[in-house]
Specification:
Layout (H helix, E strand, L loop, with lengths): L6 H17 L2 H9 L6 H13 L18 H13 L7 H14 L2 H12 L5 E4 L15 E5 L2 E8 L10 E7 L10 E7 L5 E6 L8 E12 L10 H15 L3 H17 L1 E2 L2 E2 L4 H25 L8 H27 L15 H5 L11 H7 L10 H13 L2
Helix pairs in contact: 1-4, 4-8, 5-6, 5-7, 7-10, 8-9, 8-10, 9-10, 10-12, 10-13
């Protein structure tokens, strides 16, 4: 495949850029630029509805469900512009994770019920996979679901559940059969988060935000029709979903945006009257990250284009996840280094952000807010979505037979 942009891609880029300029509220863009966690639910809803109104609510979905026929290169251009404009990247646990699973393995009734409100931002989702003793070793999860009449009755606990405190629905991996191999006894259930028996307990993160939670399920009942696909096939569906999560966890577009922020900071901050970006030592650090980011970009493009190669797909996805998450940490570290003592200021979170925090003051310029919180949050980048240690084990096994 030819990855070089052509006149069609240039025209499309200009179209996307104009649309965001005309329709994205500036204060929302600024809150996204700051990057404090969690983004406001209404900001997610505004962005998703804006995208859906233009037919861009889920470009990777089939056309019959609101997707597009874009090539890999057009999807790449779109995502570059989306991040460049500081548009929130969807309610991705819905459109990017469970949505494709429902399309691939769900039935028509489930597609009609769940996909339209998902793509329009009317309903948000959370992922109930990890448990206190089953995070990286997901096959050992203990949350049980038993079929009683025409309902599944769920008992157990999940942890690290992002957005569970405001999600309308959750997709939960549960054990429905204990008489077979661990992977063969799992199923995937769609659960309303308002169900009796669900209790959500917040987990406060080191950066001061709240987007993670514990979820307790005590006798939660859902209709039998809320199971995706077949009972006992949950492991297959989970792998399909996690492959998409880890591909997104390559974080290419986020890395590109954060590197641009590092450059902005380095142009504004000075040392001995000279912009930091002009000093050889700091310029070298930027160049090293840019080289690694360029290599990541080419790797992601090959994956988007379904380029055939001799490597196991699971190993490729794991390698992208490792490199992307490590780069996020390196770039955020570079931002903090460039800020120097300014990085010590806590600027709050965007749901409580004042105009002063959002747009800066002479004493605390606009490039300062949010960087320290983001740096602290991204210490977990090499853990969430599958820890780097586990990804290296997958590579060793699938690529080298070790």
């Amino acid at each position: 495949m030819n990855f070089e942009p052509n006149s069609e891609h240039d025209a499309f880029r200009a179209e996307v850029r104009r649309f965001f300029k005309d329709h994205l509220p500036p204060d929302l863009a600024r809150r996204t630029y700051i990057g404090a966690h969690p983004p406001a639910v209404e900001d997610y809803r505004t962005c998703q509805r804006m995208l859906h109104s233009r037919g861009w609510g889920a470009p990777h979905w089939p056309v019959e469900w609101g997707g597009t026929t874009w090539s890999a290169m057009k999807r790449h251009v779109f995502m570059e512009e989306l991040y460049e404009a500081d548009v929130l990247d969807y309610g991705w646990q819905g459109t990017h994770m469970i949505g494709p699973v429902i399309i691939a393995f769900g039935n028509d009734a489930q597609r009609r019920r769940f996909l339209p409100p998902m793509i329009n931002g009317d309903e948000f989702w959370c992922q109930g996979f990890s448990e206190p003793n089953a995070g990286s070793d997901l096959a050992s999860l203990r949350t049980r679901a038993q079929l009683v009449g025409q309902e599944w009755v769920i008992n157990g606990q999940k942890i690290w559940t992002s957005d569970a405190h405001y999600a309308d629905w959750g997709f939960f991996l549960v054990r429905t059969d204990t008489s077979v191999k661990p992977q063969r006894g799992l199923s995937l259930l769609l659960v309303p988060m308002s169900s009796p028996g669900i209790r959500v307990r917040p987990i406060q993160s080191i950066h001061g935000g709240h987007d993670l939670n514990e979820v307790f399920l005590d006798g939660v009942r859902v209709p039998a029709g809320n199971m995706v696909g077949e009972a006992g096939k949950g492991w297959t569906y989970a792998k399909y979903l996690l492959d998409k999560e880890r591909t997104a966890s390559a974080s290419l577009y986020q890395n590109k945006r954060e590197l641009q922020k590092a450059k902005v900071i380095a142009r504004q901050e000075t040392i001995n009257g000279r912009p930091l970006i002009e000093t050889p030592a700091f310029a070298r650090k930027i160049a090293l990250i840019e080289a690694d980011l360029l290599a990541l970009q080419w790797s992601v493009l090959r994956l988007l284009a379904d380029e055939k190669n001799s490597h196991d797909p699971d190993a490729v996805v794991s390698a992208l996840k490792i490199r992307g998450s490590e780069l996020l940490q390196r770039v955020s570290q570079l931002q903090i280094e460039a800020l120097g003592p300014r990085a010590l200021r806590a600027c709050g979170h965007q749901e409580n952000a004042t105009a002063e925090v959002l747009f800066g003051t002479p004493e605390w310029p606009a490039h300062v807010p949010g960087r320290t919180a983001q740096f602290l949050y991204l210490r977990a980048a090499t853990i969430f979505g599958g820890s780097c240690e586990i990804q290296k084990n997958i590579i060793a096994k699938r690529a080298f037979g070790l």
